[in-house]
Amino acid sequence: MKKLAPLMITAISVFLGFTFWGAGMAKLFYEHQFFGWIGPTWLVEELEHFGLGFYGRFIAFSQIIIGYMLLTTRYKLLGSIMMIPMIGNILMVTISLQWRGTPFVLAFLLLLDLIILWQYRDFFRPLIDEGNRRFDIKSRTIRTRNGHLVWLAGLGLQFFSIPISNSNWLLACGVVLLGLVVSGLSFRLERIQYNKADLKIP
Fold first, then answer.
1. What are phi and psi of 167, to 5 degrees?
2. What is the spatial distance between Cα 27 and Cα 73, in angstroms, rounded to a whole number?
3. Where are the domains of the chain?
4. Cis status of the peptide bond prior to 163, with omega within 30 of 0
5. Rounded to whole angstroms, how far apart are CA atoms 115 and 105?
6. Is 182 a residue whose pLDDT tops 50?
7. Which stretch of DSSP H or E encloses residue 125?
8. What confidence tens digit (pLDDT) does each residue in 151-161 have?
9. pLDDT band, very low/low/confident/very high, at 120 (cuts 50, 70, 90)
10. Single pTM value for the model
11. What DSSP assignment string belongs to 13-77?
12. How far apart (Å, rounded) are the C-alpha atoms in residues 34 and 84?
């Protein structure tokens, strides 16, 4: 069971990440031609009727960034924390527009997010009890500056693909895949750096 737990958390992270990353990309891609299973892809157009088109784009970009954090599994803790207010925002929009069913889907996704956060519960004690300097925080994989920069380059390619989709959908998808590969290489880069320093990454 102990070996299955990390795999389960990773699977939940990838699922949540794909869900929201795909939803955000679909809102901004040309004619909404992107992979995903939740919508509505036309949220920006719907909110423009109320003068809230910019807010709709803000939600889409937030979904891309937070979803990408979880999809690539590099920033599971930060992404899952940011996921809570994002789901809250989307929930308020769906309730305001009287969309049925969507709140139940969001409740399920929020539950999955809370499962991830539970695995990082040792991080939250310092936030509640600021005066206590003695906390039992589990050691986790160390990240490097170069790894962060490589991951950010992959995220940047996601945004770069959006305007490309207006003229060439296949090329835009290629840029998206390239970005995912680049972000994935951030882990590989860190392993190489630590091997050179004779350190092992668990």
1. -115, -30
2. 23
3. 1-140, 141-202
4. no
5. 16
6. yes
7. helix 125-128
8. 999 999 999 99
9. confident
10. 0.87
11. HHHHHHHHHHHHHHHHSGGG-S--SS--TTHHHHHHTTT-HHHHHHHHHHHHHHHHHHHSSTTHH
12. 24
